[in-house]
Amino acid sequence: MRTVIKQTELPFMATAKSRSFSPLEKLKKAANLTPSKKEVTLSNGDVFEFWTTPLTMAEREQAQKGTKDDANAFALRLFVSKALQEDGRRMFQAGQIDELKHDVSAENMDRLMLALLPSQEEEDDLDPKE
């Protein structure tokens, strides 16, 4: 006797009732690239606000170009490219990197650049052990 299985009964097949996403669609949906507000207290007590989106691999590659494994240069280029105003416009242009290096204290630049890193809460969401 021959058993016939309908194609819609296979558990790995997507049906009209439960459309499954491709792996790429799942990853893109999980990316959540919406801007979030960052607040950094500067050494004089003022609060500097900016918005930023999560880092993509393409943005990281772009910031690494020409830095010759210089972590400070990389972090500064990344900050300049990722710091946004509330309306989504960039706060700084690449031509302002030298001014930021020479006219802003290293302490404040370190605080600003570190603000780009995921918060502990965001890192906990990414913990593969859970």
For this entry, give a set of tags:
mainly alpha, 130 residues, 9% strand, globular
**What share of residues is helical?**
25-40%
- How many β-strand runs? 2
Sheet of most strands: 2 strands, antiparallel
Run of helices and strands: HEEHHHHH
Oligomer: single chain
- Report low-confidence residues grouped into runs of 5 or more: none
Q: Could you tell me the mean pLDDT?
A: 84
Shape: globular
Give the C-alpha Rg.
22 Å
How are the strands of the largest sheet arranged?
1-2
How far is the N terminus from the C terminus? 47 Å
Number of helices: 6
- Structural class label: mainly alpha
Beta content comes to 5-15%
Report on the structure:
With 130 residues, the protein is mainly alpha-helical. It has helices at 23-31, 57-64, 71-82, 97-103, 106-114, 120-125; strands spanning 36-41, 47-52. It has a two-stranded antiparallel ribbon with strand order 1-2. Helix 2 (57-64) packs across helix 3 (71-82) and helix 3 packs across helix 5 (106-114). The chain is globular and about 80 Å long. The mean pLDDT is 84.
What is the compact description of this entry?
By secondary structure, the protein is mostly helical.
Topology:
Blueprint: H1 23-31, E1 36-41, E2 47-52, H2 57-64, H3 71-82, H4 97-103, H5 106-114, H6 120-125
Antiparallel strand pairs: 1-2
